[in-house]
Every structure is written in C-alpha cells, then in structure tokens.
C-alpha cells in the first residue's frame, strides 16, 4: 500500500498556491532588478562611449538625448518596482495577472514611442528599426520568463512583434526618399520577418517560463512531502530516518519487516499522577520523554506510541536496520543509565523504569482513513514485548528480553542472567527470558 497523504489534493493546492505566490513575488522583483541594472548599465555605457567620441555630440544631438532620457527613466521605473516588491510583498496577498500584462504593454509601448521619437533624427526614419535600441525588445521578452506564465511571455513577444511591425510600416509609408538599392528602406518584408522572430521569441520564452514553473511546483511538492512526513512522525523519528524516507519519495509500502520492539513503563506513575497537579504531571512526562526520544533517535529507532506512563519503541521499521535487536538493547541500557543520572541530579522526580524487548517479524504500514492515518506496527512481536515488560515487577528487574534477542546481539551486559522459561498471557508457547538489568 502506498504512503498516502491525508487530504493531499486540497492541502497541496492551498500550500502550492501560497508558496508559488511567494515565488512569484520574488521572481517579479528579480526581473525588475535585472532590468533596472541593464538600463543603468546602458546609461553609463552611452555616456562613456559618446563622450569618448565627441562630448559635444552628447549634449546637442537629440538622438542621444532621447535615448539617454529613455534609459534613465526606465532604470528609475524598474528600480521603483524592485523597491515596491521588496517593501510591499507582505501587503499584497496575491499579485494580479492583469498587472503583468499591463506592465509588459507599458514597457514595450515606451520603447516603441522612443524609437519613433528617435527616428525623427534620421534622414531615412525607417533605419531606426535596424538600429541597436531595437534589441531592447529582446530584453523584455527574455526576462518575461521570470514571470512564470506562458500567456504573459506570449503576450510580451506578440506585442513586441506587432508594435515593431506597426512602427516599421508607418515609417516606411512616411518616408519620402528611398534608396534605390536599400531593401531596408523600401520593403516591409525584412521587418515582417523580424516581427515574426519577436513573436517566436515570446513563444520560446513562454515555454521556458512554463518549465521553470513546473520545476518550482515540483520543488514545492517535495517540500510538502517532507512536511507531511514530519507531521506524520513528529519528533519520533531520527533525522537519519527522515532523510532515508525522503529519499524514497515518501512511499512506504505495507510489508513484513524484522523489527525489535521495546515497551517502556514508568513504575508507579499512576500514584504520582494522583498526588500532583496536571501541570506537574505534564512537566514530568516532557522531561522523561525528552530523555527517551534523544536516545531512541541516536539508535535509529521510532517511538510509535506515547502511552502516558510509557511508550512503544520500534527498531527496524519503517527503515530496516542490519541488527534491530542490537540497536534496541543498546537504547534500553542507555535509557536506564540516563534515567538514573537524571534521578541523581534531580532533573526528574525519582523514577524507576521497566522495559521489555522482543525481536521478530511484524507487519508495518499505515492504518486509518482518508482523513487520518497512522504508521503502525502489528504482530506477535509487539504483543510479546508488552507481556515481557509486565513481568519486570514479578522478577524485580528493569530490562527483560527474550532468548531471540540474546541470540541476535553480539554481547550481553555482565550482570545479565537467565530467568528461564515463562508463559506469557495470550501466548501458547513458553519463551525463554533473560534479565539484562
């Protein structure tokens, strides 16, 4: 059975819209910043280049003045947009799509108007359409990819192509003197071709924008998967296990796995709870389980259930371990040592813990409904671990394990001893028990 996220379609849609809108604002700001930088660079380059040639040209030629004015104003305009997005991202919950179309149209129209004004300085006005400033159209088209919308990029390319073609046709018709051998001065065909290229550039930019959007969506979905896994397992899972699960794309199939199970019980917890306030009880539980969780994470285990006066811990699922019994025994001994240290240092009320450990085959997977699911471990190994833990009171011990566990581990504590064969409630066959502490 596949690992399914409760309400994923609804939750992911909401999560994606929210995160994508944030990315949308960032990309718009990035686009405005790039354009502001490009136009500012153009201002510096224009001043430097033409002053090196002849500084008098720069001040008195209307062509250069008009082009410089355009570059300065556009640089300020884009810088203002960049600043707005930097300061106003939180103020606007969603950036309207029509604003992108309007902004694109305004930018292109300003360029077209500037080209028209510059054309007055040419003896043959149509030649302005093959001058370097016309390449600015491509800046707007290329950077439209940052708007993450195919329609906006297509609109930008189409508007650039149509405005370019319209101005070209107007200037050719307006021109009185034609150069006999200059095809650019008397034929509209080269400008139709260039207009078509601009439109195709818009289509290409739209395709790139769509691919960027898909990669962002995939990234957001992966982030949501991580969040879902973290919400499902909370602080029960060690970071190493989380990473393995994420590497498996959050797919956890129901299957049989070899696991070791520990049941931990706080002895006489009920008496403590009866004599103390709810706040004191919760504080005690948090301190106790804080110790347990840290140790379990260290040994790559999972706390499947918090039981109030104890917990159930699993080693070997959902991520398999080479020797789950070894991890379980080491974790149990560490828990016992840390609880004793906490008792001696007054970090928690005087606490005695009992633990029972069993190793064996279990069925692992999610159980529940579409709205709520829980990762679960089921099988005789779980029942036997719980029954073994309950025998600690009878044998005045702290850690009891089955013979199967002892057979799996590389070494047992020095003070360990064989208890003998016992009959567990609800289990037909007797099992051999060892006391490790």
From TrEMBL:
It is found in: Cell membrane. The keyword Thylakoid does not apply. The chain crosses the membrane at residues 32-50, 62-85, 97-118, 124-143, 150-171, 191-209. Keywords: Cell membrane, Membrane, Transmembrane, Transmembrane helix. Coiled coil: none annotated. SMART domains: CYCc. It holds the Pfam family Guanylate_cyc. The keyword Signal does not apply. InterPro entries: A/G_cyclase (IPR001054), Adenylyl/Guanylyl_Cyclase_3/4 (IPR050697), Nucleotide_cyclase (IPR029787). It is a multi-pass membrane protein. GO terms for cellular component: plasma membrane. This is Adenylate cyclase /adenylate/guanylate cyclase. One of its GO terms (biological process) is intracellular signal transduction. Residues 260-389 form the Guanylate cyclase domain. It comes from the Bacteria. GO terms for molecular function: adenylate cyclase activity. SUPFAM superfamilies: Nucleotide cyclase (SSF55073).
